[in-house]
């Protein structure tokens, strides 16, 4: 006799055998008991959760020779034929290979005949979503008003692909993924019946591999038994299934939470030496930290986690010293690392850097505590300390920032420091000021006032004058220096611009003024800087002064110490009207 795999040998034969689908089995039993059995059913859900098995059990319950019953006897010839799949009145059709309209027409022609031996003629169509649109259309009328001796049972893993016209003619039952403890309990029952020695931890690994599917879990268990025989060890299960040993995962979490960088890196080295996938190990760490976070947040997780009581107790003890905020930060680091591993060629390095960052992560300070400390600083009180942190020592004195000197100009440097006098208001006053041509003590005043006057009347021309050098400025003489090849030189050498400057200078100074524009190979050493350069130097000095004031302010220094930060930028706040300077 050929070997019968566990998934077929231990297939549910009654509604009581269905694991994790009590909402379906109870509804169907009540419908049979109350005589309210519909003519069409649609079973939906993931693979291996009991859809086809439920369809067979329902077919046996409707056609059992002992009469309509909520639990088939599984001993009469009809039940045995349905179990073996060779009943002449129960048709199991594969929707993936019978997709055409001709197949549905043949089925429709067969419907009108009475069942040969049973009470009902039952059509079970698996993966019904694979039928074509024409096939569905051919089935509509028959599905809505079938003969009284016909029942339809559809099964699918993708109900969204079934037309709404079909869905509206069926009673729909959604099968759930089976919880891990329920799968482990069922596997324990089966291995005890088979006489196999295996631990609950190994069965949990097998059940996790099934991912909520009882059939996948039984197939995996079959593979394990073929490898290990009747005595199964945890190491053999981990090696066969290629899963990471849970002890490594626990040790990795413990090293991170205990800030043991060397231990965390040693765990990564072990994972690499065993040949495990770094990305899979990272995913297991994510799952483990998720469990620790949930247990830390809610205490009793209940059905939120698919863990045994022993595993929950171990994880609670592991995360006892960590806060929920720190666990969430660990999860964020692991999620980022896992995403980077998908496209990187050095997953071990990414995982090592992630674990190092997690192990050295500074504890998170609650926002309320930070606000309270800032409020205390603003009121001038003492800085409140955290109960779980030592008092920080006094900060070391910060060295005064080095002041950068402005570019040195031999002749103009003393001149630039001279105070600016008011511009003359009348020709007589202007004539009284006669500066020496070689000195620029009052020439800077004349030049600045002249440029401002020009800018008020001719903004573009005034902007050009801000970029040129005042080589010589006196009553009746105005000599302007422009760098060779500059736009200002080309513009100011235009006769029209010179005539316009003469007119503006005569109106401003009150005397005819000679305008001379000279080309310079470089910045002159015997002339003052341009107004644009002078403004830039003043702005730089003002910003340096503001930064010094900010660094010396006691509130700012306390905030820098509190957050262990640094001053990256200083901005001047606008002065309000009426505010005291």
From TrEMBL:
Domain AAA+ ATPase: 37-179
Pfam families, sorted: DNA_pol3_delta2, DNA_pol3_gamma3, DNAX_ATPase_lid
Compositional bias (Basic and acidic residues): 532-550
Entry EC no(s): 2.7.7.7
EC supergroup of this enzyme: transferase
Catalysed conversion reaction: DNA(n) + a 2'-deoxyribonucleoside 5'-triphosphate = DNA(n+1) + diphosphate
InterPro entries: AAA+_ATPase, ClpA/B, DNA_pol3_clamp-load_cplx_C, DNA_pol_III_gamma-3, DNA_pol_III_sug/sutau_N, DNA_Rep/Repair_Clamp_Loader, HLD_clamp_pol_III_gamma_tau, P-loop_NTPase
UniProt-annotated stretches for the region Disordered: 381-418, 523-550
Composition bias, Low complexity: 401-418
Family named by the database record: Belongs to the DnaX/STICHEL family.
Assembly: DNA polymerase III contains a core (composed of alpha, epsilon and theta chains) that associates with a tau subunit. This core dimerizes to form the POLIII' complex. PolIII' associates with the gamma complex (composed of gamma, delta, delta', psi and chi chains) and with the beta chain to form the complete DNA polymerase III complex.
Name of protein: DNA polymerase III subunit gamma/tau
Organism: Geomonas anaerohicana
Gene encoding the protein: dnaX
């Amino acid at each position: 006799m050929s070997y019968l795999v566990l998934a077929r040998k231990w297939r549910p034969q009654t509604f009581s055998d269905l694991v994790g689908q009590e909402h379906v089995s109870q509804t169907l039993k009540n419908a049979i008991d109350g005589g309210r059995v519909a003519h069409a059913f649609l079973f939906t859900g993931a693979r291996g959760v009991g859809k086809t098995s439920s369809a067979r059990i329902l077919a046996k319950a409707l056609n059992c020779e002992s009469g309509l019953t909520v639990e088939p006897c599984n001993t009469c010839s009809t039940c045995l034929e349905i179990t073996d799949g060779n009943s002449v009145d129960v048709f199991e059709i594969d929707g993936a290979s019978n997709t055409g309209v001709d197949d549905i027409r043949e089925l429709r022609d067969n419907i009108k005949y009475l069942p040969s031996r049973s009470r009902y003629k039952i059509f079970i169509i698996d993966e019904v979503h694979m039928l074509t649109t024409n096939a569905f259309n051919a089935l509509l009328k028959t599905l809505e008003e079938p003969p009284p001796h016909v029942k339809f049972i559809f099964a699918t893993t993708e109900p969204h692909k079934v037309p709404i016209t079909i869905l509206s003619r069926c009673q729909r039952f959604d099968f759930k993924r089976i919880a891990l403890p329920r799968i482990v309990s069922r596997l324990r029952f089966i291995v005890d019946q088979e006489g196999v020695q295996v631990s609950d931890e190994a069965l949990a690994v097998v059940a996790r591999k099934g991912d909520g599917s009882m059939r996948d879990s039984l197939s995996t268990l079959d593979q394990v038994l073929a490898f290990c025989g009747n005595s199964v060890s945890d190491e053999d299960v981990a090696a066969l299934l290629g899963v990471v040993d849970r002890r490594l995962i626990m040790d990795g979490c413990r090293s991170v939470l205990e800030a043991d960088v060397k231990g965390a890196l040693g765990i990564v080295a072990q994972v690499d030496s065993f040949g495990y996938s770094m990305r899979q190990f990272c995913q297991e760490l994510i799952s483990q930290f998720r469990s620790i976070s949930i247990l830390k947040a809610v205490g009793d997780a209940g059905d939120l986690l698919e863990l045994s009581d022993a595993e929950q107790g171990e994880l609670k003890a592991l995360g006892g010293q960590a806060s929920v905020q720190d666990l969430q930060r660990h999860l964020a680091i692991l999620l980022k690392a896992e995403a980077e591993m998908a496209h990187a060629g050095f997953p071990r390095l990414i995982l090592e850097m992630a674990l190092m960052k997690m192990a050295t992560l500074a504890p998170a300070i609650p926002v309320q505590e930070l606000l309270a400390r800032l409020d205390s600083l603003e009121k001038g009180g003492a800085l409140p300390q955290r109960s779980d942190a030592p008092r920080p020592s006094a900060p070391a004195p910060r060295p005064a920032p080095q002041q950068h000197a402005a570019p040195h100009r031999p002749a103009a440097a003393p001149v630039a420091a001279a105070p600016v006098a008011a511009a003359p208001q009348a020709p007589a006053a202007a004539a009284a000021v006669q500066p020496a041509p070689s000195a620029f003590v009052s020439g800077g005043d004349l030049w600045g006032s002249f440029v401002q006057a020009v800018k008020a009347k001719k903004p573009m021309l005034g902007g050009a004058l801000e970029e040129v050098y005042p080589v010589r400025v006196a009553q009746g003489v105005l000599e302007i220096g422009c760098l060779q090849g500059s736009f200002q030189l080309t513009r100011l050498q235009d006769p029209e611009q010179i005539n316009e400057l003469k007119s503006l200078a005569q109106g401003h100074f009150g005397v005819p003024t000679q305008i001379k524009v000279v080309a310079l190979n470089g910045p002159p050493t015997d002339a003052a800087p341009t107004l644009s350069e002078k403004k830039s130097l003043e702005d730089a000095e003002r910003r340096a002064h503001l930064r010094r004031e900010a660094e010396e302010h006691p509130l700012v220094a306390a905030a820098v110490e509190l957050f262990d930060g640094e001053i990256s930028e200083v901005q001047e706040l606008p002065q309000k009207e009426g505010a005291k300077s």
